[in-house]
Amino acid sequence: MMAVSRKQPNIVITGTPGVGKTTHAELLATNTQLKHISLNDIAKEEDCYDGYDEELQTHILDEDKLLDHIESGLKAGGNIIDYHACELFPEALIDLVVVIRCDSTLLFDRMKARRYPERKIEENMDSEIMQVILEEARESYAEEIVVELQSDCAEDVERNVERIQSWLEAWKKNNNNSNTTTTTNT
Prior knowledge:
Largest sheet: 5 strands, parallel
Region (LID): 113-123
Radius of gyration: 17 Å
Number of strands: 9
CATH architecture: 3-Layer(aba) Sandwich
GO biological process, one term: rRNA processing
Number of helices: 7
CATH topology: Rossmann fold
Strand content: 15-25%
InterPro entries: Adenyl_kinase_AK6 (IPR020618), P-loop_NTPase (IPR027417)
Region (NMPbind): 38-61
CATH class: Alpha Beta
Distance between the termini: 8 Å
Structural class: alpha/beta
Strand order of the largest sheet: 3-6-2-7-8
Protein name: Adenylate kinase isoenzyme 6 homolog
């Protein structure tokens, strides 16, 4: 149980690069009143980096600086946070964590099409196969707010978005029946 005073929830959509996080987040934002927050975009716009990893060809995120930029928005609620990790967000500000998964053969092909370096593909494939992001979500948040969804095709994405929208409607009904702080079981 968690006390909630926001009018809208915060949803994290997470998973290995290439599973379809952004597609899910954009479609969900289009269908709801929630705002899509791409942490990769914010990190670039606000220069929230501690350096660059040449081997993986990726920036090293300054998590504190990034959180400073989004914390007030998270406190207000109404966000869909799109990022490949989830444990950095304060548990009290997150209402649902959706871990998107993908068949490893499809995921490999998606990363190849993005022209990721071999080392980056290998690391991300290992992460997906070993369920690293799913386990991080389960360790960081209450079990009842972590949901694992498969995303191998467009039909999966549509079903997943419908499922999240149903959850959103239930959340609103459970949390906005009064103007005072309420309690919810997610």
